């Protein structure tokens, strides 16, 4: 399960969607980081992910997910905040 931080929950919906997609793709790809496979999947799922990433980066780094939930994200349980 991916648990968004309180700061992330207050972001625009399109940025919350990006965070969830970003973390979910990490559960599907067996490579570390944001390599070619990860980028190809993101392109398929969210063609404008680079724009959303850029916008999120400039809002505030470190607002994404609750660090306690990282293990759950790695095993593939994902939930989105409303």
Describe this structure in words.
This protein is mainly alpha-helical and 82 residues long. It has one domain (6-74). Helix content is 56%, strand content 0%. It is globular, with a radius of gyration of 12 Å. It starts with 5 loop residues before the first helix and ends in an 8-residue tail after the last helix.
H/E series: HHHHH
Global mean pLDDT: 77
Q: Level of helix content?
A: 55-70%
Strands, total number: 0
Broad structural category: mainly alpha
Count of DSSP-assigned helices: 5
How many domain modules?
Answer: 1
Detail the poorly predicted runs: 69-82
Describe the global form: globular
Give Rg in angstroms.
12 Å
Tell me about the largest β-sheet: none
Q: Alpha-carbon distance between the termini?
A: 14 Å
Strand content: under 5%
Write a brief structural summary:
The protein is mainly alpha-helical and 82 residues long. Helix content is 56%, strand content 0%. Mean pLDDT is 77; it is low at 69-82.
């Amino acid at each position: 399960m991916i648990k968004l931080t309180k700061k992330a929950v207050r972001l625009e919906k399109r940025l919350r969607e990006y965070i969830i997609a970003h973390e979910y793709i990490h559960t599907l790809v067996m490579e570390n980081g944001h390599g070619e496979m990860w980028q190809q999947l993101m392109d398929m799922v969210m063609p404008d992910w680079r724009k959303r990433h850029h916008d999120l980066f400039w809002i505030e780094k470190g607002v994404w997910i609750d660090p306690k939930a990282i293990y759950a994200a790695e095993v593939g349980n994902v939930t989105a905040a409303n």
